[in-house]
Amino acid sequence: MAVPAPAQPTPAASGNTQFLVFFRGQPVGREEVVVLKVQEGWVVRGTSRLGQPIDITSRVAEVQYDAEWRPLSMHIDSIVRGQDVSLKTTFANGRASNVIAIQGKPQPKEDPVSVDTVVLPNAFLGSYAALARRLQGKATGAELRGYIAPQAEVPIRVAGVTSERIETPKSVLDVTRYALIIANPPPGGDLPMNLWADQNGDLIRMQIPSQ
User: Fold this and answer.
1) Are 101 and 85 spatial neighbours (Cβ–Cβ below 8 Å)?
2) Quick check: 131 and 156 in contact, CB under 8 A?
3) Alpha-carbon distance 8 to 161, whole Å?
4) What is the pLDDT of residue 185?
5) Which one of 4, 25, 90, 201 has the lowest number of neighbouring Cβ atoms within 10 Å?
6) Alpha-carbon distance 89 to 74, whole Å?
7) Which DSSP string corresponds to 176-187?
8) Domain regions of the chain by residue span
9) How far is CA 38 from the centre of its chain?
10) What is the pTM of this model?
């Protein structure tokens, strides 16, 4: 994404948050995520350092959407289990055009996707901040599409919507919990997930019970 000229107003930030990441009940690292409103639309940007057994450090992770939350591009620069891995993706005409580079060796890959798919790369959990925004106002039975980049697009079904309150040391948050089913292709099968968002649609928490 081009850097705005100094004369332009500073993009508005929403959900600038540091998340703790747990795997099977044990803390494995942190992700810092910010959602930016820019002239072109929206940017979800972050960095992360996740230890074993995940072992991923994302130096740069960014997904850009237009004003209607339709994906435009993605860029991830990371270290995965000791190897330099980068992923650059552009979205146009119902296609996701990827260039995946492992240790500097690029490999192209294209996938069919919906024009309004939510981009959810496994290397950037903060990308679910876009899903939280897209879930605003959705009721039980609604369905979205998610692109598990750079693998494939999958259906995401809303199995339940519940209003809850989360107590923190400083305040009590009114949140919405979305019970989701991610329909992975065989042999993966359905993956239940819970996602909590506040009244502004900012991501508060996500949980994959099987993990």
Assistant:
1) yes
2) yes
3) 39
4) 79
5) 25
6) 5
7) EEEEEEEEETTT
8) 12-207
9) 18
10) 0.87
